[in-house]
């Protein structure tokens, strides 16, 4: 039983590790759904006035989506790698297709939350009903006179709906919710189709085999994890050494003392080395051997872009 549980845990560990992007995007989508529900309950209040309804409804859908998009861009490591690449090398190492795909990768990752927000808003229909209520033509409602003022129609989504149009309130709201949900489902279909086509394009244009791409993904994940863990230890040991030089001693717990003893650190890495491993990286091969990252390239002492006669560049980013 213990061995079975252990094997299952290993399987789930590999599953999550190999699909970290998919799971991360799913968690972002779930968080966005929860935020949208909270916003609808606590913060959404239709102003029930001509022109204000339209502006408020659009703002309720568009402004949070824009904020989430900007947050997604800021939280994407590719963004800051690109900034570092522009500052250090002016994107000289990236071809035009690669640069375009880099922007696409950043925008695609950042679009998960805003698209989810927009879809949920449209499926709920509250913001759309608020925005479109004042534009409903009274002539389309059976038995309603055609000279109803827009300010009266703008109050349809509200609790204090005028008695003259109260009988038509449910019909108008039902029609607008239908339109809103229809747009939402169309948006879902467009996004799903776009993602499918882009994934097909990525695998069709990739010079790597499926297994090598999977290995590259595993390598990047392992390198990032080990680099961050090692950097954390290195920073603590170096800080302990500097604090000891200043005070003459350093207050460490038992675990930290063992760490300092096991991993002695005298100096930090010079800036040129940090510059070499920082920035945008596309898959490259040097004389037939793969270079999976800037750190890998630096460790192999490869100079330049690796684009000589025996090298090639893959213009697709790993997302």
Automatic annotation (TrEMBL):
Pfam family, one: Ca_hom_mod
Stored InterPro entries: CALHM (IPR029569)
Annotated compartments: Membrane
Example of a GO biological process term: ATP export
GO molecular function: monoatomic cation channel activity
GO cellular component: plasma membrane
Membrane topology designation: Multi-pass membrane protein
Superkingdom field: Eukaryota
Family recorded in the similarity comment: Belongs to the CALHM family.
Protein name per Swiss-Prot or TrEMBL: Calcium homeostasis modulator protein 2
Taxonomic source organism: Pyxicephalus adspersus
């Amino acid at each position: 039983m213990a061995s079975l549980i252990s094997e299952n845990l290993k399987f789930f560990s590999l599953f999550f590790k190999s699909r970290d992007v998919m799971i991360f995007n799913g968690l972002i989508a779930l968080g966005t759904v929860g935020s949208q529900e909270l916003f609808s309950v606590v913060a959404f209040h239709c102003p029930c006035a001509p022109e204000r309804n339209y502006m408020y409804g659009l703002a309720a859908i568009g402004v949070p989506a824009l904020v989430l998009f900007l947050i997604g861009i800021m939280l994407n490591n590719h963004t800051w790698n690109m900034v570092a690449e522009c500052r250090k090398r002016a994107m000289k190492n990236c071809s035009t297709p690669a640069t375009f795909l880099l922007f696409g990768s950043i925008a695609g990752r950042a679009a998960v939350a805003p698209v989810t927000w927009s879809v949920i808003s449209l499926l709920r229909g509250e913001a759309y009903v608020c925005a479109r209520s004042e534009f409903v033509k009274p002539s389309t409602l059976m038995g309603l006179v055609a000279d109803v003022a827009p300010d009266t129609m703008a109050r349809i989504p509200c609790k204090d709906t005028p008695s003259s149009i109260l009988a038509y309130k449910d019909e108008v709201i039902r029609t607008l919710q239908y339109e809103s949900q229809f747009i939402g489902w169309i948006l879902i279909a467009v996004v799903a189709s776009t993602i499918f086509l882009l994934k097909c394009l990525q695998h069709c244009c990739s010079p790597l085999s499926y297994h090598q791409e999977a290995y590259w993904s595993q390598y990047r994940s392992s390198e990032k994890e080990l680099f961050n863990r090692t950097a954390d230890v290195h920073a603590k040991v170096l800080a302990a050494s500097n604090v000891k030089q200043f005070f003459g001693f350093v207050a460490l717990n038992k675990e930290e003392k063992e760490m300092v003893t096991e991993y002695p650190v005298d100096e930090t890495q010079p800036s040129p080395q940090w510059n070499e491993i920082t920035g945008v990286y596309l898959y490259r091969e040097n004389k037939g051997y793969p270079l999976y990252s800037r750190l890998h390239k630096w460790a192999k002492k490869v100079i330049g872009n690796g684009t000589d006669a025996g090298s090639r560049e893959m213009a697709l980013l790993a997302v």
